[in-house]
Specification:
By secondary structure, this protein is α/β, with parallel strands linked by helices. The protein has one domain: Aldolase class I (TIM Barrel, Alpha-Beta Barrel), CATH 3.20.20. Helix content is about 30%, strand content about 20%. It is built from 10 helices and 13 strands. It has an 8-stranded parallel barrel, surrounded by 7 helices. A 3-stranded mixed beta sheet has the order 5-11-10, with no helix packed on it. Strand 10 and strand 11 form a beta hairpin. Helix 6 runs parallel beside helix 7. The protein is globular and about 55 Å long.
């Protein structure tokens, strides 16, 4: 069974990649993931201040801290709803310490290490991309998301700002960049095309934003990111299928992976790789090996030599009747 997969120009041993999470700031944890069979790992993100906290990008970018709690616009900056046995190690990482994490991870691991940036502005992290490349990152993932609170700002203006951010960063990088897309654009497919035209080599479909909650007992406001479940994969599955074979980029599916079954569904839709996070947090790093073994066993039982054989067979462009992908 050959699970070898090409993603962002990288050759991976299988199509299962560990997604961004605060716990991935722990080097020993990353080693456990590699031992379990991870094809690549994405590190937690380096955050900017997201402008003036309104999402408008008016204030100078903050370049000193990964904020693992307290930034209202980014899922990684919120408290994950984690089991008590899991610690979010990303708290308090300075830029220098993040670069050190990239260097140490690259030295310890034999699999690709994907660094991550979070920004809503074109200028927030232009200088940091090359530093992460120099530190040894195999690729870079960029999360562009901020809640717009200026009611006068148009969607077109926000979209153009995101595209400019991708173009500016790609212009400074010698490693591939993937964009972690949010699902809230009026036309995600059009934005996918624009990101690729701006230089993105890959797209992650989709990044999940944190959502607010009102604590009635303490009359306080909080936000968090619940661990995903299989039902959460449906929107990502739709857009992977709609984009596969229509945009010139590597597609990474993200959200809702509980077992090998979801991996296989995403592959049929057209994903190059599938990103896993919640299942690992629930069950521990070793569970990743069970997922990969399940994928290999499913393919082998059907005489399917590799994921390439089924990849995209149920995408929008391959099906004679793809109406289920566009039904209301």
């Amino acid at each position: 069974m050959d699970l070898t997969t090409s993603y962002l120009g990288l050759t991976l041993k299988n199509p299962v990649v560990v997604s961004v999470a605060p716990v991935s700031a722990n080097l020993d944890y990353l080693c456990q993931l590699e031992d379990a069979g991870a094809a690549a790992v994405a590190l937690p993100s380096l955050f900017d201040a997201l402008g003036d906290a309104t999402g408008n990008g008016n204030a100078p970018p903050g370049r000193d801290t990964i904020v693992a709690a307290g930034t209202g616009n980014n899922p990684e900056a919120q408290q994950y709803y984690l089991p008590s046995s899991i610690t979010a190690d990303a708290h308090g990482l300075t830029t220098d310490r993040y670069l050190d994490l990239v260097q140490r991870a690259r030295a310890r691991l034999s699999i690709p290490v994907i660094a991550s940036l979070n920004s809503a502005t074109a200028g927030g992290w232009q200088n940091d991309g090359p530093l992460l490349e120099e530190a040894g990152a195999s690729a870079l993932a960029l999360n562009l998301y901020a809640v717009p609170t200026d009611l006068a700002e148009t969607g077109a203006a926000i979209e153009e700002r995101y595209v400019q951010a991708v173009r500016a960063l790609c212009g400074q990088l010698g490693i591939p960049l993937s964009v972690r897309m949010a699902p809230h654009f009026t036309n995600p497919g059009n934005m996918a095309q624009r990101f690729v035209q701006a230089g993105a080599a890959g797209l992650v479909v989709f990044n999940r934003p944190a959502l607010p909650d009102v604590d009635l007992r303490h009359l306080s406001l909080s936000s968090g990111l619940p661990l995903s479940q299989a039902v959460d994969m449906r929107e990502a599955l739709r857009w992977v299928a709609l984009l596969a074979g229509r945009v010139n980029a590597s597609l990474a599916a993200s959200a809702g992976v509980e077992s090998a079954e979801q991996i296989i569904q995403y592959l049929y839709a057209g994903a190059q790789v599938v990103m896993v996070k919640s299942a690992i947090i629930r069950h521990g790093p070793a569970y990743l090996g069970q997922i990969i073994d399940g994928l290999a066993s499913w393919l082998d039982a059907r005489g399917i030599a590799s994921p390439d054989v089924i990849r995209g067979l149920m995408s929008f462009v391959k099906l004679k009747d793809p109406s289920a992908y566009i039904c209301a």
